[in-house]
Structure to design on (113 residues):
């Protein structure tokens, strides 16, 4: 009984994660600005990957597999914000950001490094 519930819950997580990853991909294609695309590539995609990993963990249930899934989730959470920060700073430094759309520009007038 408990295994059946875990399988159904895992399937729901897999579908939800896939839909969030699809929304992230559509956002990357449709959004007009680098910062908007970066947001679409990191926020829903990270949650989507974590939901997919949770669905896989609920389906596999092996301690070795759970350790590997947790490690993948940890690396995803550690690298996505750093990559987003580097993309945003590079886009700002190379003038690929539409500054008229910024509500606040904290980096204006600072040295580039």
């Amino acid at each position: 009984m408990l295994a059946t519930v875990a399988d159904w819950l895992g399937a729901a997580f897999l579908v939800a994660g896939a839909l969030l990853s699809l929304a992230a991909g559509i956002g990357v294609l449709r959004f007009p600005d680098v910062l908007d695309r970066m947001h679409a590539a990191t926020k829903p995609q990270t949650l989507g990957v974590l939901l997919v990993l949770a669905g896989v963990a609920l389906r596999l249930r092996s301690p070795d597999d759970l350790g590997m899934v947790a490690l993948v989730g940890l690396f995803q959470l550690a690298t996505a914000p750093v990559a987003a920060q580097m993309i945003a700073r590079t886009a700002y430094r190379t003038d690929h950001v539409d500054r008229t759309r910024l509500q606040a520009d904290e980096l204006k007038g600072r040295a580039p490094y």
